[in-house]
Specification:
The complex is a heterodimer. Chain A is mostly beta strands. Chain A is 0% helix and 46% strand. In chain B, a hairpin with a 5-residue loop joins strand 1 and strand 2. Chains A and B meet through strand 2, strand 4, strand 6, strand 7 and strand 9 of A and strand 5, strand 9 and strand 10 of B.
């Protein structure tokens, strides 16, 4: 018998909506197994996405913060950001170059997150030597703002 | 009256679709933000997640666009009281100071892992320079 991959109706006295991954039955399989179910209306811990996008920091603006707005949440949300360079997504490596070796340095990110926007801070390096010049870098970030509050001051 | 937890059709605000509320919340009248699932609420969907080991791994995606991809290196950290702990570190990749034996120290920074999106989303190649790398793929496009 083919498996029932979608079920909408009454089950054990409650109305439910369930969808399963291929090969699993929406009525009889374990609804709490994430390897079997793609959705259940009984789940209460789904993580909602508030906004996703690509943010750009323009080096021409020198030492500054560029703000990326999102609809106000009333709390500071949990975020994920990653450095994007062309079609390559990095983990946590910033565009911070050693001007002598051109090696990429791990800087982490220092983003300011408010209840309705987050800010991209400048990334720069100073050339070695007495006449060292400060070099600013353009960079792009992939970001996701989740509807999850973060306890913060 | 019991609460209406699933609405398929028109809600009180006039929106039409599939709407599901948590226990105790009326799906017919609740604000969008209070719903577990709303047809107008989702901006993206997590479609794939997993972990790859060291080296280069090609993961088929089958998209015709570049999706949002987030990766996190996992690095083994040698902790004296409990051995090597493997986990996500920030900032990443990890770095270590090595005693040169002559009074000087050398800072080594491990190579980062990264994901290359191939052919506008047909697949992605994760280059993992650490013990392993976690990845998440969303269906939202950025090309």
């Amino acid at each position: 018998m083919a498996t029932r991959r979608t079920y909408i109706g009454k089950l054990n006295g409650n109305f439910v909506v369930r969808t399963t991954l291929p090969g699993y039955d929406a009525i009889n399989d374990d609804v709490n197994d994430p390897d079997k179910f793609s959705f259940s209306s009984d789940w209460t811990d789904l993580c909602k996405i508030h906004q996703v996008g690509i943010a750009f920091k323009n080096s021409n603006n020198g030492i500054s913060i560029e703000w990326v707005p999102f609809p106000a949440l009333g709390y500071k949300p949990y975020m994920e950001v990653r450095w994007l360079s062309g079609n390559v997504v990095y983990d946590d490596v910033g565009p911070w170059l050693n001007v002598n070796t051109s090696a990429k340095f791990a800087t982490g990110w220092n983003q300011q997150v408010l209840t309705d926007q987050f800010g991209l801070e400048s990334k720069f390096a100073v050339q070695a030597g007495p006449n060292g010049e400060t070099i600013f870098f353009d960079y792009y970030l992939l970001y996701v703002v989740y509807k999850v509050p973060v306890a913060s001051g | 009256m019991s609460t209406r937890r699933i609405i398929i059709g028109k809600r009180a605000n006039g929106n039409k679709g599939v709407f599901i509320s948590p226990v105790g919340v009326d799906a017919y009248t609740a604000l969008d933000a209070s719903l577990v699932l709303g047809i107008g609420g989702a901006l993206s969907q997590l479609v794939m997640m997993g972990r790859v080991g060291a080296g280069s791994t090609v993961i088929p995606l089958g998209f015709s666009h570049s999706p949002y991809v987030f990766i996190s290196n996992r690095t083994g950290l040698n902790v004296s009281y409990s051995g090597i702990i493997d986990g996500v570190m920030r900032p990443s990749p990890s770095s270590q100071l090595v005693d040169n034996g002559d009074g000087s120290l050398t800072l080594f920074i491990n190579s980062p892992s990264y994901a290359t999106v191939n052919s506008n989303g047909i697949s992605m190649t994760i280059t993992c320079n650490n013990s392993s790398t976690n990845y998440q793929v969303y269906n939202r496009a950025w090309t």
